[in-house]
Design goal:
This protein has about 350 residues and is of the alpha/beta class. Helices cover about 35% and strands about 25% of the residues. It contains six helices and 14 strands. The strands form two sheets. Strands 1, 2, 3, 4, 5, 6, 7, 8, 9, 10, 12 and 13 form a twelve-stranded parallel sheet that branches. A two-stranded parallel ribbon has the order 11-14. Helix 4 runs antiparallel to helix 5. The longest helix is centred in the N-terminal third of the chain and has 32 residues.
Length: about 350
């Protein structure tokens, strides 16, 4: 008992101490592993900086600090609105709206590493800011009421007010894209190089095929469409879609006001739905020449299974939301190959 030491020595370490040649081989192996790890890290950082010029904080504390500062700036602009001259009021409110949209974009681009609670909390804050801005706009810039003064005019019953279209959750940007089409097959090839923002808006009964990577994708007001996309390096925002099929790969996907749609996804964070019903989810199933390399370059080559971990932003109960479900395997499409598509 007296000869036992508190910690048993490592026999391998003892051999290394006794044999200089083993020490040299061991140190050489450690140097190679260290060099390989550093090379992979440098490559990852270089690829990320090349593919995404927008800030990505990679830490919750850094993100929250930036988000809080931006929110404080929006709050200050809102509080100043009642002191702005009438001629300058509309541009001022438009600038606030743009700042709120930037906040939403900030959350979307960094949500893949944020805890689910922080994503929900940030989106709730943005929703409250948007509602405050809408109320302020209605108060300071009310719609003008027109009336006709004619004593002899016959009285007529007022027409029922038409239901105003629902305001989109996000502002559709004036970026390159596909707009206002019906019954067409639309193909875009980006030659394997990433472009910036791309918009798909106001389509009916169309098929859209995007090959190559884009930084951010906005989808707005689609009906009875099929949309196939390669990797989206930042975020996908979808609003106002009905009876559509989407096959997409992205770091973050947010869906608002979707009805009876199927989503085949590969996504690094949990997909988010809001004000949606009858939406179903399944794994990504797209193929075209070069897609494997593009997915790998954008860190989307691994299946995360997040397509089946959907967050319903407005469903706060412990049980699963009834607004979404996993698409049964016998109802899923097979592998979709769009390699032969010609650009339109």
């Amino acid at each position: 008992m007296e000869n036992e030491s508190p910690l048993s020595p490592n026999p391998t370490q003892g051999s290394l101490d006794c044999d200089p040649s083993l020490q040299k081989k061991h140190q050489s192996m450690l140097d190679r592993l260290t060099h390989r790890h550093q090379s992979r890290l440098d490559s990852s950082l270089t690829r990320r900086s090349d593919s995404d010029p927008s800030p990505s904080f990679e830490s919750t504390s850094a993100f929250l600090s930036r988000f809080s500062a931006s929110k404080s700036s929006v709050d200050s602009q809102l509080s100043l609105s009642r002191r702005i001259a009438a001629d300058d009021l509309k541009p001022h409110l438009d600038q606030i709206s743009a700042s709120v949209s930037d906040l939403e974009k900030l959350v979307a681009e960094n949500s893949y590493f944020l805890p689910s609670y922080e994503v929900r909390s940030s989106l709730k804050t943005i929703s409250d800011l948007r509602q405050t801005l809408d109320n302020l706009t209605a108060e300071l810039l009310p719609k003008k009421k027109f009336s006709f003064r004619n004593k002899c005019a016959a009285k007529t019953e007022p027409k029922p007010k038409e239901k105003e279209p629902e305001k989109p959750e996000f502002k559709v940007p004036a970026s390159p894209g596909i707009w206002s089409k019906k019954g067409e097959t639309l193909v875009r090839k980006f030659s394997g190089s990433e472009i910036g923002e791309f918009t798909i808006s106001d389509l009916d009964s169309c098929e859209v095929r995007l090959m190559g990577s884009v930084r951010a994708l906005f989808v707005h007001r689609l009906r009875n469409c099929r949309v196939y996309t390669g990797p989206v390096t930042s975020s996908v925002l979808i609003e106002g879609v009905e009876e559509c099929v989407f096959v997409m790969a992205s770091h973050q996907i947010r869906i608002h006001n979707a009805k009876k749609c199927d989503f085949y996804l590969r996504v690094r964070s949990r997909p988010i739905i809001e004000d949606s019903c009858g939406v179903r989810f399944a794994p990504y199933c797209l193929r075209y020449d070069g897609i494997e390399e593009e997915l790998r370059d954008n860190s989307l080559d691994e299946e995360t299974e997040n397509w089946g971990n959907v967050d319903d932003f407005l469903w706060l109960r412990a049980v699963q939301s009834p607004n979404w479900s996993v698409l049964p395997e016998n109802e899923r499409v097979g592998l979709v190959d769009i390699s032969s598509a010609e650009e339109s």
